[in-house]
Structures are given as C-alpha cells and as structure tokens.
Amino acid sequence: MSGFIVRSLRLCSLLVVVALVLAACGAPTTTTPATGTAEPSTAASPATTAEASASPATAETATGGSSPRGQGIRVTTTNAPDENNPSDIARHKQLLEEFKKVRPDVEIEAHQGGFDKEAFTAKFAAGTMEDTYLVPFTEPQELIARGQAADITDLIKGWENFDSFNPEVLRIVQDQQGRIYGVPVGGYALGLLYNRKLFQEAGLDPNKPPTTWDEVREYAKKLTDPSKGRAGFAELSKGNQGGWHFTAWKYSFGGDLVQQKDGKWTATFNDENGVKALQTLKDMRWTDKSMTEQQLLTVGDVLPLLANEQVAMAVMAPDALRDMKNKFQAKIEDFGMAPLPQGGGNGTLAGGAAWLFNPKSSPEVLQAAFDWTVNRDFNLTAFEADLKSRQERGDLVGFPELPLFTGEFEQQRQAIVAKYANAPVENYKPYMEAKIQLRTEPPVKTQELYAVIDTAMQAVLTDQNADPKQVLDEAAQQFQTQVLDQIK
Amino acid sequence: MRESLTTRSAARSRTGSRSRWRKILAHNLAAYLFLLPALILFATFSWYPIARGFIISFQRIDLINPPQWVGLDNFRHVLSDPLFFRAWRNTLQFTLLALLLGYLVPVVLAIAVNEMRHARAYFRLAFYLPVILPPMVTILLWKWFYDPGPGLANSVLRLLGLSQQPWLQSPRTAMFSLVIMSTWANAGGTMLLYLAALQGIPAHLYDAAEIDGANLWQRLIHITLPQIRTVMLILLVLQIIGTMQVFTEPFVMTDGGPVNATITVLLLLYRYAFKFQNFGAASALGLILFVVLVIFSLLYLWLTRKTMSNEL
Description:
Number of helices of chain A: 19
Largest sheet of chain A: 4 strands, mixed
Oligomer: heterodimer
Strand order of the largest sheet of chain B: 1-2
C-alpha cells in the first residue's frame, strides 16, 4: 500500500514543482543569464543594449578587497557576468578595476542572475535581496509603490551628470512626487530591422525604408520571393512575444492597451486602432502572402531567418543586430535599422533596465552601491575601455541605443561610440533621426495581457478566416473579466 | 513500605519497556540509519512540497505578505477560466489520440520484431533509439520536420503526391502533429516492455498451435494477445496517466498555440505559476489533476494486484 501512496503522490509531481519554488525561497537563484537581446519584460533578465553583456562573475568579483575586515564596504548586486562568457567576465573585471580607482574601500559582490519576478519576490520575502538590482522598465513603479526600492533622490542629484539625464527616461524611475528611485542605464525602442541588400535587389531604395504600415505592405510584397523561400516580413506570436510586439503596433496606430479610470482598469486594445493593426497583419499574411509560412515565432526564431535572407524585414529592437552578428554570423553591413512604421499613432514601445536599490541597506552601502552603478554604466573611461575591448573582441559596437542623456554628456558618449564603432552606423540613420514618442509596456498584468494577445495574433496568422475584430474582442473580454476585474 | 514497593515495580516496568524499545531500536538501528537519508530526501523534496501544494491551493501567496486563506477562491478562479475547459478538452484529445496511435504502434512493433528471424537486435535498437534522444533534441528535430516550407514531413507528402499540411501552424492539425511526434519518441520504450512480455510466453503454446495447424494470424489472436493482455491493460492505464500530464511537447513547440489549440492542463498550470505568479490557482489546478490521476492510479493498483494474484 505504501508503494501505492508513494506512486500516486509522485504523480502529483506538478504540485511539487509549484511548491518547490515556494520552498526555495531565499535559495540563491540559478536563473539563466540574459541572452542580451531585447525581449518583453518577462525575460529572465532585462535585455537592454547597455546591459548587452552585463551579467555575472562570482568568485573573481569578490576578490580585490584587500581592506581589512570591518573597514571595507561590501555591496551585493545582481547581474554578475555570465560565467560561461569570457568576454563578459573580462568586461566586469575591467569595470571593477575602474571602480577601485574611485572607491578603493568598496567591495563588489556580484550574484548570478538577472530580473526574475518570482526569484525577486522570494528574495525580498527572505530578506536576501541584493543591495542593488537591475529590473526592466515595467517594474520600477510597482516596486516603488510596494516600498521595495530605496529613495535615492539625494544621491542621484549629487551626481555630476545628473542634469544631463533625459527627463523622459528618468520618469520611469520616479514616483508621482518626483522622487527618484533608480538609475536607468539602457534601453531599446522597437523599430524595423531590414535587409538593405534585398531592398536593392527588389529595386527599393535602402536609404528610404518604409515609414507607414501601408508602405510596409507594398515593400513586403516586392521583397517576397517564394522561389527562394523568402518572405518579405515576419512577426512574433509565441511565448508572450506576440503581445509584446502587438503593443508596439498598437502604439503606432494610436491609443493604449489598457486604461485606468477611478482606479479601475479597462482593456482598450480592441478599439478601432487595435483592429486596424491586426487587420494589417492579417492582410500581409493572407492577402499579400508576404509573410513566413512558419508562424508561432519568437525573436530567437526570426533572427536566423533574417540572417539567412529568408526574411527581409521584421520589427526588432536594435540590439538584435548584435545577436545577428555574434550568434548567426549575419553580414551586418547588409542590415539597416528604421523607426517603427506608423499608422497614425506616432509611438513605439521602449524598454530598458534600471538599477534600483534595496531600502533595507544602510546609507553608506546605498551610497557605495549608487557609486558602483553610475561608475559601472556611465564612467566615460570605463565606457571607452569597454567599447575598445568589445571592438577588439569583435563584438558589435555602435548599434543604436535609447538616448539616456541629452546635451554635452550625451555628445561625449556618442563621440566615444563613434571612435570604436564597427557597425555600419550610417545604416541606422533613419532610426536615429526619428521623432517618435517612446512609450513603456502596459503597466498592469503585462504578462497576462501578452498571453491573451498572443492568441489573437496566432488566430489571424494561422487561420485565414479569423476576424481581427472578433478575436480582439474575445481577447479583451477574457482579459477584462479574468484578469482586470479580479484586481483587488 | 507498600508505597516504595509500588514505585519500585512501576520503575521496573518503565525501565523494562524502555529497554525493550532500546532493544528493538538497537536491533534495527542499522536499517533505520540506512533508511534515514531516503526518508529525509523524500520528506524534504517530495512529501513536504506536496503537502504545501495542497495547502497553497487554498491560499493566496505573493511571496511578500504572509499567505492568506481564501477558501475556494482559487478553485473558482480556475473553473471560471475559459482556458480551463479548453485545456482539459485538449488534454483528453491528446490522450485519446495518443492511445489510438501511441498505444497500438508499440504492440505492433513488438510483435513484428518478435516474429523476425533476422536483424531482430538491429530493429529493436532502431525503434528504441528515439527514446534515448533527449526530449529537447527530439522536439527541435521535429520542428524542422514540420516546417511548412522545406520541412521533411511536407517533402514526403509532396513525393507521394499528397497535399501539403500546415502541421503545427494550424489549430486543426497542431495537436495531431504533437501526438505523432510523441509516439515516435516514446513508442520504443513501451515496445521493449511488450517484447519482454512476448518473450515470456511459453514456447510450447506456439509449438502446440503449429502442430494443430494454426497460421500466424490465429496464433496472434489466440495465443499472443491473450498472453500479453494484462501487460497491455497495465500499460494502457500507465499511458493514460502519462499522457494526461503532457507538457514538454506543447511547451517547447507551440506554447499552447495556435489559438490555444494545444494548451494542456499542465501547460496552463505552468502559466498560472510561472508566468502569472498565481501559485494558488496553479496549486488548485494541480489538485484537480491530482484527483483525476488518483482514479487512474487506483485502477492501476487494482490491475497489478489482480495480475499478481492470478500469477501466484
């Protein structure tokens, strides 16, 4: 009998999985480090361009501290460089050396793993949260509201380049009173990645990428070549990435995905503009036949297709270029980056990452942690050394990033980038010169939202009889009743 | 005086029972010590999480605030999710299709291999090979097979002059495609079990049948199948239990799509827990699945008992 009990209990291993997560509270997280490519905020670690190779080194990190016990300040941080990536580790070592010059009294202890919602909540619960931790742009507001991010207004205002911060970006880490809780360090805005060579072959001007979705349709038709197995356009629809990209589409047509009124949230992504967006996608798939036969794609599926010239255009974040080069050996000079095509909304989705700070850390540790983050990400000497070594290692340098700063400081940074750029920077001119509003991901129940929109995307991409309005209405109704109305 | 006597005898009986316990313990100490690591491991990694799972299904947990008792709220949430019934329908569909395909294929393979005079070892290995492949490799391989453009599956259809299929790309065919893949990947293991059962059939039964002039078909119907019937029954139940927990294939290949055509109970559970951080709902759904699986487990238990007593 006991054999039976054991056996049937084992069948319930699914419960084990769930409960283990809870039981594992406080255990060091083993989350996979960032892939580096921009992905929706669900990604294990926020993929910001600045964060490209920024994640973890363990043992080496804690060395350096020759200061006698009790004197030095120890700062713990997430996103240690990837243990399996020598160039990440090299970069991190270099940053530590730079930091030693400024704060010889501080020891940095970097822990493996980037943002991971359940791991972070568990660490907060167990009191093992790092002194400073990196989160995607979707998270700061919630963490600030919960009191899990320290107010660093005085620290950041004391920083020499504070006035250069791009106020749009800074707003992401501010509360309503304007207090500042974090240091935004990098980001992306979704745009259109396209193959210039294929443009030329199709008789299109590679310096004039499509700026509207109507133009995208025209271009995609011309770029499609079934005899070569080539599609003009590809779009994501799996793993919540369809919802993530749809958000950008929606912004480009206008309006929000959700709206808050009197504290109550309403799903609005099925409005006229949402339907227009999905209808465009459906027309490209079935009327124009200018999209891939293969659907249910993620970023990881589309990048090799772009690199192999099986797809000519796709919505991507610019750091995709780096993965295209490093992982898929794409001929990077063939690729250009344009702003997200528009349908009347003049907006695109921007994501990125910011360092937040543990409110339970002591003031001197917070000061040291703050010094570390700005030094790590903004120290010009370290920035230059980093770009130089990245260039020497053959990493892509010079792909577009979110403008974190304005004015002179930004110019200084750009001058350094230009010095080491090995990317064809002129190919990104359309993207850089765009005047499109940057908007963050929807702030409430984002993953649930993306999941229902994935379904709507899949419907129009895999079924030529699907009605965009109907599938969006269903998705909105489900999201409203199942998720938004349940918020207490 | 009397008092002291009673106390003494009481003390004696106490020491007596204590020493008896000590004796039992000393006698089995080594055994308990050997058992201890297993007990601790099971308790920590199996029983405790399972118990927690039950408890969590009645709680709201956000890992920050202390857990809150919410009664049946989690169950209400799960039952009102339109995907709940979708997931059960899909899971049952997968189970049924997997039985139609995946149940018969191994039996046929086993009988075929068993009847072979030559190259039996080769075919046994060939059919078993997919089982050795790590599931991820199998799944990525089949992703290529199912590519609607240059994929192997459509190339074969083209060669045969049949119409192309969308495979994973259409809500109509996606689940079926997963079943084919899963059958390919798992049939070998089940086949080995049948082969073992087949080899256990006494040879004299066949000899007698041949003398009586029974042909291959008659031997199959009257000897082979009745002889492996119990094994087939047990494997049937095991397979139902196994396929109802289908997760890896839809998780990696379709993530439940297209349009929720391949979302299964476990995949939904995974989403609740790890995408939406709703551990209560995940545990509630786990508990529901648990109850269903226990029914099949009892059936399995009863079947094995019956076979055991038959054989003894």
